[in-house]
Amino acid sequence: MKMITAIIRPEKLDDVKAALFAAEVEGLTITRVSGHGGEKTVLESYRGHPLVYEFHDKVRLDIGVSEPFVDVTIEAIVKAGKTGQVGDGKIFVFPVEKVVRIRTGEVDRDAVTPVHMLQKK
Amino acid sequence: MTKKKPILFLALAAMLLVSWAVLADATGDKTGGIANVPAQVAGKPTLEEIGAAVGQTRVSLNFVWTLVAGFLVMFMQAGFALAETGFTRARNAAHTMMMNFMVYALGILGFWVCGFALQMGGSGAPMGASLTVPETMTKLIGPSIGGNIWGLFGGTGFFLSGVSYDVAAFALFLFQMVFMDTALTIPTGSMAERWKLSAFVIYGLVVSAVVYPLFACWAWGGGWLSTLGKYVGLGHGYVDFAGSGVVHLTGGVMALTGAIVLGPRIGKYVKGEAQAIPGHNLPMAVLGCFILAFGWFGFNAGSTLAGTDLRISVVAVNTMLASASGAFLAFLYTWKKFGRPDLSMAVNGMLAGLVAITAPCAFVTAPSAVLIGAVSGVLVVAAALFIENRLKIDDPVGAIAVHGVNGAWGLIALGLFADGTYGGGLNGGPAAGVAGLLYGDPKQLVAQFIGIGANLLWVGGSSFALFKIIDLVLGMRVKPEQEMQGLDFNEISAPSYPGEGSPVHFPVFASVPAKVTSTLLVTQPSPAGGK
Question: Shortest Cα distance from B159 to chain A (angstroms)?
Answer without folding.
Answer: 33
